Amino acid sequence: MNPQAHQPPQIISANGIDICYEDFGDPSAEPMLLIMGLGAQMIHWDDEFCRQLAARGFRVIRFDNRDIGKSGKLSGGKRLTPVELLKLRFLKIPIAAPYKLIDMARDTTGLMDVLGIKSAHLVGASMGGMIAQEIAISFPQRVRSLTSIMSTTGNPKVPPPTREASAMLMAPPPATREEYFERFAQTWKILRVGSFPEDEALDRSRAERTFERGLNPAGVGRQLRAILASGSRKERLHAVKAPTLVIHGTVDPLVRPEGGKDTAASIPGAKLLMVEGMGHALPIPLWPQIIDAIDKHAHGAAAKAA
User: Fold this and answer.
1) Is the dihedral of CA 223, 249, 212, 179 positive or negative?
2) For position 88, what pLDDT does the model report?
3) Residue 2: its pLDDT value, please?
4) Considering the chain, what is the average pLDDT of its residues?
5) How far is the CA of 28 from the CAs of 35, 41, 58, 60, 124, in angstroms?
6) Alpha-carbon span 146 to 135, nearest angstrom
7) pLDDT over threshold 80, residue 160
8) Nearest-CA neighbor of 261 among 131, 146, 157?
9) Which pLDDT score, from 0 to 100, does residue 46 have?
10) Considering only CA atoms, which of 64, 110, 45, 106 is closest in space to residue 294?
11) Residues 6+ apart with CB under 8 A from 49
12) What tens digit of pLDDT does each residue of 200-250 get?
């Protein structure tokens, strides 16, 4: 066993698009797929976070969702307007989208097919949690365990983001490199909620790495449409059989704490971990608690299945 093994990023074709992925840990260990959120590249699962999970006995695979980072870009879908959001919220008029979360779920299972992985532990953050939930509903045989982090069910009764977080989501994309770096720091300050000096010190280098891998503002818009066009999973989540852990921050400004509580209440037997002082981010000081919870949950599910 070599938990320190690390395969550099590779691009494969799955579900008709290119997907960029990266592998940490022993190739023969329990497979664990990390699915990132809206507009977030796979590197938002920090390298060290992945290494620490791999050291717990997992083959950790992170990847860029479609329309982000080094994965395939799609086309179509205009920038989302506040009018569309109001129509959805108050008149229940659906939002048009070039693809939905089920398509992103198929990207994930397609990646698993190419890698020869029949089933895996799925860990999804934010939109990644929604994709992981969709896989657990639609392709239950592919899921050894489900960990849904700072995510929600799509239930319209869950409170919307704070005004500040909503404004951040709807802001036009930055025009220059420097403006992007400033926006990156501002965005994470809003999402992290409170002071996390270790992470703040890394904002610039993280922003540079994200920028260098390539931005796709139109793709982020299509991902947002996919979330809103996919509707509520609440009723369908009642059928999920996979052992489920829901992790959510008590001060999340984007997907409110009620989103996590609603997810846990909708999945039979789900465990809920509310992390005190956590916003919509995975700040370094909270890693031990989060990694311990994921590790214990996934290994517990594996032991039960054995």
Assistant:
1) positive
2) 64
3) 65
4) 93
5) 20, 26, 9, 11, 22
6) 9
7) yes
8) 157
9) 97
10) 45
11) 282, 287, 291
12) 999 999 999 999 999 999 899 899 889 989 999 999 999 999 999 999 999
Q: What is the pLDDT of residue 170?
A: 80
Strands 271-275 and 244-249: parallel
- Predicted local confidence at residue 181, as pLDDT: 96
Task: Give the strands of the sheet with 271-275, arranged side by side.
Answer: 6-14, 17-24, 58-63, 30-35, 120-125, 143-149, 244-249, 271-275
In this predicted structure, what is the pLDDT of residue 7?
84
Residue 241 CB coordination number (10 Å): 13
pLDDT tens across 89-146, in order? 666 667 778 899 999 999 999 999 999 999 999 999 999 999 999 999 999 999 999 9
Residues in the chain: 306
**Which of the four pLDDT bands, split at 50, 70 and 90, describes residue 35?**
very high
Q: Which domains does the chain have, with CATH numbers?
A: 6-162+218-305 (3.40.50.1820)
Pair of tokens at residue 246: 């829901």
Q: What is the pLDDT of residues 250-287, one digit of tens each?
A: 999 999 999 999 999 999 999 999 999 999 999 999 99
User: How is residue 167 written in tokens?
Assistant: 């404004």
